[in-house]
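1st attempt posting a full record on here, be nice pls
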Amino acid sequence: MEIFKNLINGQWVPAQSGETFEDRNPARNSEVVGVFAKSGKPDIEAAISAARAAYPTWRLVPAPRRAEILFRAGEEMIRRKEELAQSMTREMGKVIKEARGDVQEAIDMVFFIAGEGRRSHGFTAPSELPNKAAWCERQPMGVVGAITPWNFPSAIPIWKLAPALVLGNTVIFKPASDTPLTAHRLVEILNAAGLPKGVLNLVHGPGSVCGNALVESDDVDLISFTGSSEVGRHINAGCAPSFKRVSLEMGGKNGIIVMDDADIDLAVEGSIWGAFGTSGQRCTASSRIIVHKAVVEEFSAKLAARAKALKLGDGLDEKTDVGPVINKAAQQKILEYIEIGKAEGAKLLAGGAAETSGPCADGWFVQPTVFGDVKTSMRIAQEEIFGPVTAVIPVGSLEEAIEAANSTRYGLSASIYTRDVNKAFHAARDVYTGIFYFNSATIGAEIQMPFGGTRETGNGHREGGTQVLDVFSEWKTVYVDFSGALQKAQIDN
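the predicted structure (as tokens):
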């Protein structure tokens, strides 16, 4: 079997240790998707050296020329969309229609951000002094370490790589070890599109070694991380001594509010999609459904029936609704949380076990699980499970629903189902999240809008939209005095 290598300084090279690791299909664990370089700190150091050496030249390439490389990469991603989606499903289990959407999101982001090669607007402002001009412009950060998760192995890397590159940074890309093949294909495409050597480097390997080496290096100027809040806290602390910029996109415990005047069938449909899309393995997953007591019985019965009817299996089967979870450890963690929910007194309405029959016999599957009669104080209502488990929380009013929505340490996404526009705007104002939806699930963010959350979901930065440019660049203010004399601001006015 082919051994996939690292890309360092424009060359595909093995790990210096010679070690490798296997990438296995979570739907068919006996299938090895690929064998990859298992890198260590020396490989990261080589990639950092290459990126640092390439930076002075790359930053001076005109931004429109940098953008042209991204446009070419985007065209190749369109041509290879189905190939990328198929390999993604094989290595992380996402059903094929979602994998195609993941790739399309990456394509959309590449083209959107490539357009910033001819924009990346700064602004001008009038000086308080005569014969003096003032403006501001963006300058690149330097060397970027991009550490990405496995659940969106195409979209999230491109959210980071595209803006970093178009702004003139150089990059070391450390993808999740559960999805190295998708990362390899993306870098293969970007490299072939014309990136100079050393501008984009790919290093496979464990986060505990490779990720830490990026965080600890004084030659890395920015860490952009998406993953768990626990790892994000560790990265944040590691970046603090050197004042390294760090952008964190982390966990969520997102709530859908269903009011007594809601379209119940529509709310059930949105909750099924929000809770069990990507097998619940999204930071925006609808893991809590906050339902008015007047309709909770009807809603819960319909939600449980729909959950039980979902078809589990290999994501490459077009008829599959829910694929596997990413690996055995994830399956065990999810099953442990299900037992915690039972022990806490929540009522199991659907699912509640691993699925091991038929097409699920050789994979890591968990039945779509619905708990009822959940209290906000329960662990299953507070902690991120990251699997196909959702909790129905009964409430008696809009105010109580908003309180429940705000009752976690996270603040990424929330939504409300109601026919009352006043209730909708009230909730949108008072639910403290980075994203809010009316009459939709908590998933479905679009690339032209900022993405990110509050509290332990992130550290204030946003990805997506033009706001992502603020992560990967510094502002420089420029003053030009053409008066021919020394003028003193705040004094000579």
